[in-house]
Design a protein that fits this description.
five-stranded parallel sheet; single chain; GDSL lipase/esterase; hydrolase activity, acting on ester bonds; 13 helices; mainly alpha; Rossmann fold; binds 2-acetamido-2-deoxy-beta-D-glucopyranose; globular; 5 strands
Amino acid sequence: MAMACRVVSSNLVILSLCLLVLPCLSQGQGLCPFEAIYQFGDSISDTGNIGFINPMGPCSNLPYGKTQFGKGVGRCSDGLLMIDYITQALQHPLLPPYLQNSTETNHGVNFAVAGSTDLDTDFFKERNVTWKNSQNDRPIHDQLNWFREHLNNSVCKTLMPTECARKLSKALFILGEIGFNDFNWPLKSGKTVTEMTAYIQPIVQKTTDAVRELIRQGAVRIVVPGLFPMGCFPLYLNHKGPNAVTLKDASGCLGPFNQLAKDYNKALQDALSLLGKENPNVFILYGDYYTAYESLLRNAPGLGFDDPLKSCAGNCTNPSKYLIFDHVHPTQEAAKHLAAYVIKETLSKIPCAQ
Ligand SMILES: *[C@@H]1O[C@H](CO)[C@@H](O)[C@H](O)[C@H]1NC(C)=O
Ligand SMILES: *[C@@H]1O[C@H](CO)[C@@H](O)[C@H](O)[C@H]1NC(C)=O
Ligand SMILES: *[C@@H]1O[C@H](CO)[C@@H](O)[C@H](O)[C@H]1NC(C)=O
Ligand SMILES: *[C@@H]1O[C@H](CO)[C@@H](O)[C@H](O)[C@H]1NC(C)=O
């Protein structure tokens, strides 16, 4: 994880202090004791907001949730998500979705919404990109508004701004994965993968704007995950387009789709690296979801998965044999492995609060 090292090394003094003096490795897996966790993003990390926005939608109903909950709970999976495993590893209860209006928010809140984009809807309208569930979408901009609202009405209600910032400095912020839908909706509405190159910088810009806003509010520990190798998702692999077969590379994935994700991830890492230099007291870590997924694909047979490029299609008998539950969302079993990778490679490298 070159990125993590580069950003953290600009905080070398603080880092080494932490390693020498503070109980950095006090918790089970060498993880810091964060006071709270705040998650922003899309369906990869939505623990139920979509269920309040669209109770009739797929993720709110079976077969979603069948493995873990026996009913749909607004998670786009058969069970737990990566963020659920991360939350558990950090010894916190599962994060309540913001729209649940839970009073138990001391441990953090989840603002992610399935289907959400980084870019605002106007960006897509101007480019003739429309999709049928766009009214459910809560772009990152809206999620940040919710966050400010939450600070005002709950976590920082009785605190001075400096006290609020101090409280947030002990929390973990995870911004993403987000950006997949910014590519997926246009691709579904007929844009080509090549055309998507022009979307990379605007999306990265939105992500970094969001990180800046979190920093302004007091965030000091921020993980920004990149995109998965989307060319390995059954969503695109099963696409019947004329080029679908010829686009496949040696691993059976769609090369140009993976290249798009790689190009985006590279641009994101470059932007985060700059942001880290601008904010030497803030720890901004890139979350390498791409490599996490690649590693899972590679190790899938040994881990008991069947063909890792095939999806369970929502109604297979044993979702734990598949990486993907529907056509794009990891199964609970896959999420468990992906989370373990991120915990080991990224979360364990965050220096602890003093
Ligand atoms: C949460 O609070 C808002 C604002 O008061 C309200 O509109 C909404 O219905 C509440 N949602 C739930 C699930 O209680
Ligand atoms: C969007 O569609 C309208 C109507 O078909 C067309 O006139 C316009 O040129 C299109 N704009 C772009 C950016 O493709
Ligand atoms: C939060 O409170 C401040 C001060 O009362 C106010 O200026 C701001 O508009 C509020 N923001 C939100 C999102 O409620
Ligand atoms: C069940 O799986 C089949 C393919 O195996 C698929 O065509 C169908 O849409 C799936 N049904 C549901 C409800 O997901």
